[in-house]
Amino acid sequence: MPAAGVLVTHREGTAPFRSFFVFAALDAMLGGMVWTPPGQALAGLAEIAPGEWHRNILLFGTVPAILAGFLLTALPRWTKQRAVSPTVIRSLAGVWLLGRTVSLTIGQSAGLAFFGGFVLFLIVVLGTAVVAGRDRRNLKILLLLGVYCAAIVLTALDWQPQPALRLGLAAVLGLVMVIGGRVVPALTEAYLQKTGGLVPGAPSAPVERLSGLFATCVLAAWVAAPQAQVTGVACALAAISQAVRLAQWRGWRTRASAAILVLHVGYGWIVAGFALLAVHAIAPAVIDRAAAVHAWTVGAVGTMALGIMASMARKHAGRAFASSWQATAAFLAVSASALARLLAEAGPGPAWLPLSGSLWIAAFALFFAALIRMRPVKAAPNSA
After folding, report:
1. CATH code for the domain of 166
2. What residue numbers bound the domain in which 52 lies?
3. Does residue 324 lie within any of the structural domains?
4. What is the pLDDT of residues 27-84, one digit of tens each?
5. Of 108, 139, 159, which closes a domain?
6. Is pLDDT of 344 > 90?
7. Which string of b and e fits 35-67 if b means at least 16 CB within 10 Å?
8. How far apart are CA 125 and CA 112, in angstroms?
9. CA-to-CA distance for 160 and 327, rounded, in angstroms?
10. Which pLDDT tens digit goes with each residue over 181-192?
11. What does pLDDT average to over the chain?
12. CA gap 163, 157 in Å, rounded
């Protein structure tokens, strides 16, 4: 049985994703502002390095809000436990808001300490459901969240900052691969069944396990020795294994639905990130490491976040596969933002960086506008 006072059935309209996805959308816009002229002016007045501001807000503030909204809503169903108490949700939301307030008023390090506490609080809440449900399958999510929490704390302490940042990004990518591996093929199958398309067979279990295990080892090598030649070779092999995994989900069959196709495109950026890292490790003069990092952050994390958040919001509103011009425009904008960010790393040229930031802000503004207008229906299922 769930622990008393921690896990109970939530009332209509109190689904955890609602508040946290609003936080995430607003925070993502705040993080992207630094690459626009007004944002750069504000960063200069505040004497904050634009890269540090952008990185700390998005990787250690926006991402925790996205993870909290999704996992607090989806994990009770995965573990067959009752939903998280509104009191716990409000408490978590308060800690997140306090972290953002502190980071904007007192300093980035102090704010990161609060976000580390937020992730730790989230682990305790989710761990209650996992333990109560004796659900070994989701232990990997708790483990990755633990690694992510440690990376936030190390960054706040400014101890080995570059390895800590790589550790944080590796943990986030691990979570994207685990969650994406469940959500993307499941939604693809459900969409094809509803539309009468050719439904792909179940993903190969050996491919799923081996690609995940190999990606974990490669990310660990990248955290420890990002410039090593062997890491570059391993990244190339990881790109191939992740491409094989993605291909068996048959994303091209969903090309008529931007809402589903965007998830496959988002996962494709993981493949691109591994491939770009491989090229950088082998020939660093050809491609800078930042290109691979932004393929993962702006491309994979940004695109998958928008796609999965939009999917969860639609499902709880009773419109699982509905499309809208706002959502489609948001998906196009975040993809264009990722491309512009890679072009900014390629060398001098047009104002790719401000363009990327503006497109990023537009993508999350469109999602925010759609989210606040979306209303749940009584029969909406509590699922991802």
Report:
1. 1.20.210.10
2. 1-159
3. yes
4. 999 888 877 776 666 666 555 676 777 788 899 999 999 999 999 998 888 888 788 8
5. 159
6. no
7. bbeebbeebeeeebebeebbbbbbbbbbbbbbb
8. 20
9. 39
10. 999 999 999 888
11. 86
12. 13
- The first and second tokens of residue 313, run together, are 């919001």
> Does the pLDDT value for residue 384 go beyond 60?
no
Dihedral sign of CA atoms 280, 283, 284, 286 in order: negative
Shared domain check, 330 and 281: yes
Output the pTM of the full model. 0.89
Quickly tell me which residue has 């706040």 as its tokens.
156
